[in-house]
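Feature request disguised as a bug: please show the residue count (521) next to YifB family Mg chelatase-like AAA ATPase in the output. Example input:
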Amino acid sequence: MYGKVLSACLQGIEGQPIEVEVDISSGLPQINLVGLPDSAIRESVERVRSSIKNCGYTFPMDRITVNLAPADLRKEGSSFDLAIAVGILVTTGQIHMNGYANTLFLGELALDGSLRPVPGVLSMVHAAKKRGITRVCLAAVNAPEAALIADTEVCVIRNLSDFKNWNQGAYPNAIFHAREQLGDDLFENELATSPYIEDYADVNGQHQVKRAMMIAAAGMHNLILLGPPGTGKTMLIKRLPTILPPMTDREALEVTKIYSVSGKLTDRSTLMRSRSFRAPHHSISSAGLIGGGSIPKPGEVSLSHRGILFLDELPEFSRNALEVLRQPLEDRQVMIARARAVYTFPAHFILAAAMNPCPCGYYGAETETNACTCSPAKILHYRSKISGPLLDRIDLHIEVPKPSYTQLKDTTSNLSSAEMRHQVMQAHHRQMRRYAGTDIQHNNELNGRLMREMCRLTPDGDQLLRASFEALGLSARAHDRILRLARTIADLDGSDPILPAHLAEAIQYRKLDKNQRVEEM
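Example output, currently without the count:
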């Protein structure tokens, strides 16, 4: 006897439909799982056996072979339990289901036959829909998540006994239908209000730094804040999400997939609409930051996708952890190679970092009560923890000065997050119109021929950039990042051409390039 049902597994953050083939033949009673299953799948044999018996079915006392195809793809997790059980029951004729060949079965079985949720359902159902699979059977907890995919019939299975209803021509329990029509034609959904409590109106003074934060948000540029303790570096960065442009539906689907795969999805009934803000502790390992494991899982850079990765006290992170950021900052994705496969995770995020100028924190901002006690060698060693190649990939280097008492009490000229976000959105719309028909959304993605077209300079601007390039000893990468930054500044000012003033402002945000050049001399 032969039967086949459909299930799915995860490859990175994407789903992969899997055919679960069941062959039952005469022989000694045993069940063999083939098709590169991991230990969790091998253990499903006993869960399936107990579930079938405890739900009133008969487990066949024959030789059972279960093949997970394609056989050359490594599979993990407990999401195949339901498919294996249904495959055995269908093959032995104990249940009859109309259209089961076009149904996806996902879920982990308890010994009493009840169904438990599994991670990554959104990715698996989305992949199945692309293959023309229109129905999915899974646990009630996973149902709202699966129902986000349009035109998919979601059948809730609470227990294996529910399939007896199918024998009588009735569907099991409730059926969910998609509430957000998120098919292949995804469209931009702009939010009128910000969901955040923090507001830049709470930050007194630091007008120049706020301007830099707007530039970072408008073009999705990386930034680093440098200043003594207590100047508001962390406060400024924590409010950066309040002025970012809203995510499109496509971006929201990407982010929700990552959190679903990681088991960190809190609200399964809707896509994640707020941009993520991740702030790992400086003790984090390279694998925790970038992702990893025998079968790799997303790290902090992927959990920050389309959002912000905040590294506070940047020099306190291990050198190895910081250096692994180079590739995702450049390529906007993470590639983790294993013997059997290469896994790719998206990692398009804003790197927002903060650091003190020296170990004690007061270099360059000495007062009578707070004097720097660090030697030049100690300061150099402290700053050398951040390599030149990593600094090259950060667009804005911003000094955060200590505010005076007058500035600290002055609230008359404070820009609110709503006002700043309005300016950011205007620049964002200019970029949308400019890059319509391309894969580019923001200025920080410009490269090659398109960057030369969109970042043309006037003769005066070219002369200014040439002088700065030679004086600061800039790299070719820093040169390109200055051009992208100048393009964003021009967009914020509502200007089509990049003027010398825009270029001059972009150059002044390369503070650490200048400081390093001076120290070398």
